[in-house]
Design a protein that fits this description.
Elements (H helix, E strand, L loop, with lengths): L7 H24 L1 H8 L7 H14 L14 H4 L1 H4 L2
Helix pairs in contact: 1-3
Length: about 90
């Protein structure tokens, strides 16, 4: 590692994998909606509400800044102002 910084390739790999799996989990239901609706005994159109809820929750939580206090989300300049002048 270089001066305490994170290695870029593993960080990007984990970030990309997390994003891919989260998207898969949120959107997979729409792909299997007709079959799932038959098994549940509901209209396939009702599955569309799940996507609406996911999008609404994402829209509502994004301004809050859930990860504002997580050190990994801050740049080195913002967290260590004494070293940024170097």
């Amino acid at each position: 590692m270089n001066g305490g910084s994170l290695p870029i390739v593993p960080v990007l790999a984990v970030t990309t994998a997390t994003q891919a799996l989260t998207t898969l989990a949120a959107l997979a239901m729409t792909a299997v909606a007709p079959k799932a609706a038959l098994d549940l005994g509901i209209s396939p159109a009702l599955v569309g509400y799940q996507i609406g809820v996911v999008y609404f929750a994402a829209m509502a939580i994004s301004p809050v800044g859930v990860f504002h206090n997580v050190p990994a989300c801050h740049s080195g300049y913002a967290t260590k102002p004494s070293q940024s002048a170097l």
